[in-house]
Every structure is written in C-alpha cells, then in structure tokens.
Amino acid sequence: MYRIILAIFIILGACQNKTAQKNADKPEELNNNEETTLLTDSIRVHTLQIGGENTDNHNFNASYPETFFEFINTNEKNIAEEFKEEFENEASKLSADATYKIHFGQHFELIANNPALMGFLFENYRSLGNTYDDIFETRYYDLKEKRPIAVIDFFKDSKAFDSFAKQIQAQAEIKIKDIIQNDANLSADDKKQVWNTLSEDFLTGTAASPKNYKAIVFSKEKTQVIFDKYQIATGSFGKIEVEIATDKIASLLKNDYLNIFGIPQAKIEEQIKEETVQEEVRTPKEYTVDSSKQPCIALTFDDGPSIYTDKLLDILKENDAKATFFVLGKSAKIQKKTILRMKNEGHQIGNHSWDHKDLKRVSIAELEHQIYDTNEVIRDITSEAPHIIRPPYGSFNQNVKDVSKMPIILWNLDPLDWKDRNADIVAERMKKAKANGIVLAHDIHKTTIDAIPEFIKWAKQKGIHLVTIDELFGDSKLENGKTYSSRK
Ligand code: ZN
Fold this sequence. Notes:
Blueprint lengths: L1 H14 L1 H7 L12 H7 L1 E7 L8 E8 L3 H24 L8 E13 L2 E12 L2 E12 L4 E3 L8 H24 L6 H19 L9 E3 L3 E6 L12 E6 H4 L5 H7 L3 H14 L17 E7 L6 H10 L5 E4 L1 H6 L1 H9 L3 E4 L12 H19 L15 H7 L3 E2 L13 H8 L7 E5 L3 H16 L3 E3 L1 H5 L9 E2 L4
Bound molecules: zinc ion.
Zinc ion binds next to loops.
C-alpha cells in the first residue's frame, strides 16, 4: 500500500518542484498544533537512483524524507548516501560479465507527525545474486530538542524496556507457533522439529536490546514491532510483525510520549498495579518428551490456584515434573504470580470456569462469562489464553462445546483426593495410573500436595514421565469440542 502512496508522493514532488524551492525558505521550526497539517504536506520524498528502470543494470533506488527540519534532512541524507556508497562498493566488486545484477532500495512511510515528534518506518532491501535481505527500521525525531530519539528513550527505564520486550516475545512466540501449526506442508513431527530448531534464534532475536527492537511503530491503539527476515525464525517465514494493544504497554512508556501518542492516562494507572506480574513472562522450553515413544502420564490439578499451589510448584520443580492446572478465573485473578509461575516453569494452564459453576445449568450469557473471562484473565497474566477446558464436575453439553471451542479434557484416574484427606491413601490411589493416562487431583487440599512426592517417586521408578496435556497428546492434535480422558 505505501508503495502506491509513495508513487503519488514522487509524482507530486516532480510536479511541485517550484513550490519545493519556495518552501525551502520557510522557518525550519514549527511548534504549534495549527501547523500539523502543513507539516504533513511539507514532507517530500527525495529519491536517489542509479541504473534507471532497467533491471539488466545494477540498480539503486532509495527514497528518503525531506522535511522543514534541517537536522532531519541532514541525518536522512547521510544515511541514504552511506547506503548508496555500500551499493557502489558492492557493484564495483562485480565484473561486467557477472551472471547477476545488484539491486538495492529504500522506501519509507510516515508513522508519526505532530508538533513534538516525527517518525518514519524504513524498508531497506539488498539483492545480491541469490541473497535477498530486507531490513526494517524506524527513526523518530524529537522536533523540540532537534535530535533523533533512540528506541530505549521511549521507555521509562531499562527495566520497562525489558518488560516490553518480554511481552512482545510472548506474542511473537504465539505468532510463530501459529504459522508452524498452519503449515500444511509440515507433518506433526516436522512441526515440533521446526520450533525446536528455531527456538534458540528466537530467544536471541527477541531479547531486550535496541538492535532487536529497531522497528517499533507506536500508535494510540496498537504498537507494532517488525522483526526482520532471519532475525527470529528461518528465512522462509519472512519478516514477522507482532502487535500488542498499546494500553497493555502504556505504563512502560515515558509520560511525555504518552501525551504525544494520545494514550489516555486512566488506563495507565490500571496497568501500573499489574506491572510487577506482567514483566516476568518468560518462554518455557517445550517438547522435551516424545509421548509416542516414552511412557507418559498427565498429572492435572483442578480448582486452584490456592494457598498450597506454590508449594506444589516447588515440588514439581525439584523433580523436573510437569503438570496441567485447570484453574478458576476468579482465583487466577487474585493469585497472578502463581499463574505466572505455572507458565514460566513449563506447566500448562487450562480453563476450569470462572467460579466452578455447573456449566450445563447456566444461560449462554453466563456460560460466556465463565469461559471467556477466565481465558482473558489468564491471557492478561501470561500473554497466552488456555486452549483446553475441563468443565467443573466433568459436566458439559453441546452449548459448552460450542461456546468454548476448545477440546474438553477429562481424566481416567480419580484418586478421590477431595474425599479422603490422607496423603498416603491418595498417593496409593494415584499409583494405579497407567501410561498415557490423565490423573485428576486438586491443588486446594494440603493432603493432595503431600501425596505428590510419593507419586513422583513411583513414576520415576517406573520410568514414566510426568508431562502436560499438550505434551501427552504431542503430535495427535486435540480437536475442539471433542472429549479426551487419555491418550489412546
Ligand atoms: Zn473442579
């Protein structure tokens, strides 16, 4: 789209050459709101071109903005000239009879333009024979201080920037996993392999550093980060664009910039309360066990989180065991840190309704509240909504299937831990579990937590891995609206 806009700019630029001359005499500083429109009109496209329109030549076509502000023009011109030199240097290395030609280009979009700040998004491409590089970068300018704004300067401090990066990282992970999941050319095994292969590059490419976050487009509604091809995934994925609602990151930005981007203050105060939880989202490692080759059991805990859940998480962590927590929305909202620990320590979080209603007996509106609000709370804390549900009491009907649009996870072993509050009895019953099974338990009873070390010890002796629901089902995809009580 912006290529079309650009073309119009170029045509206008060519037609208005005389006006351009006049504008050059205007004062370079414009500080009040009335001038905003004029500023927009005043930006023109300067294009450097080598090689003409003929692709049989080495070709260079770089546009850069020309504004009322001399400090911007100088900076942009210098950058474009450096790019041109790089092109000329590469071209000079090739002999006249080389089998390929070099094409370099730059385009830009205006992404911020007001009396305080001007910003551009640049796309630079370099085609050298069979390599094709495409680089995105945003450059913002403070019009009052007359200087470029570094990415980090938008944030309150480096901690705020780290927190921003973590939120974007979580979104990027969802996006990439989605792309992998929807790739019809990949088998289930390939899909796991692809994520495993790229996860290290992903973590490096999304880590909090100005170099990784060089293309950020801020607006009142949403904030977008563009990661270059190869930066966080294999080249075939191309560039990866990640979006987040700006009110989710507003509390991390300096107040000056909030005003400039027109982000309302009221939402920021809400955010500050949640900030400590928000900034700790991490990406746990996945797919450590292949459930099709090794005996696995999925240990599941319902009705939490509770005062005992952190103790349970300690036990699981010491033993490198994973579990799935079917949590209640209302409790998740209170114990956010516990929920975040679950996610960060590699456990899975499922939906167990908002407050443990029998979902078969509620209205559609109530059903939507029970399911969607629970997902929303968990998404707010961990950046990821649950994609599995266990209805309270295992009670569901067609409405529950239709509204939840999630696989329904039941169990095939119930140790009746709610009935017999005795750790030894509960442990003995749990030890009847078989490979591929799903064990039901409740992390709201101290005796259940006390039974877990014995159960884990037993599983280890048997060579059984304790895994999440997703890991248990591994490559056999869970289908929405279907029920599962074990891996077949
Ligand atoms: Zn329950």
